[in-house]
Specification:
single chain, about 190 residues, alpha+beta, 2 domains, 7-stranded antiparallel β-sheet, 4-stranded antiparallel β-sheet, 11 strands, elongated
């Protein structure tokens, strides 16, 4: 038996009324609410351990392209950071976070000779850098002070980094790159 139609309703009111009934009849409210709660909890928990950083420049290209997005481990200890790690940090020259590669950690001896970087007397392999020879000025060995890092962008020709502003404070670190979201699309 069909439901009597209300003759005072317009055509569209009848159509939307029928659609509304069908939509609500097919929704399992318990499952929807459960899913929403689980997604909300995951978001809250994930935001406690992971930070998302947007990269508006080419200073880390080709590793991280312009407008790239990276996920950071926000709970990494300073003592866990090693040469070659990519970290994000705050610097007083910008309100946005910077992201650079750690070249030398506290206590390391750093030297640039003929455009090549030596850390603790050993040449470091930098396959992520296309050409460093004419972007690095040679300098005598020096020791990175405790509580500080020496960082460089992978795109040495277009990076504002420790060559310009010196060491970064370990306390300014936001986190260590765990996942380069740009790699999903490559």
């Amino acid at each position: 038996m069909t439901e009597p139609k209300d003759t005072n309703l317009s055509y569209w009111e009848i159509v939307f009324k029928d659609m509304h009934k069908e939509i609500y009849a097919n929704i399992k409210w318990e499952k929807t609410i459960t899913k929403a709660v689980v997604i909300g909890l995951l978001f809250v928990l994930l935001s406690q351990f992971v930070r998302i950083v947007f990269i508006p420049t080419t200073s880390m290209s080709p590793t991280i392209p312009r407008y790239g997005v990276v996920l950071l481990d926000a709970h990494v200890e300073v003592s866990e950071i090693e040469t070659g790690d990519v970290i994000a940090f705050h610097h007083d020259t910008s309100t946005l976070p910077y992201i650079k590669r750690v070249i030398a950690t506290p206590g390391d001896t750093l030297e640039v000779y003929e455009g090549h970087i030596k850390v603790n007397g050993s040449l470091i392999d930098e396959p992520y850098v296309k050409d460093t020879s004419h972007f690095m000025i040679d300098f005598e060995p020096f020791v990175v002070p405790e509580g500080k890092f020496y960082v460089l962008g992978d795109n040495r020709a277009n990076s504002y980094d420790s060559r310009s502003y010196g060491y970064i404070e370990a306390s300014s670190m936001i986190g260590k790159m765990k996942w380069n979201v740009a790699n999903i699309f490559r």
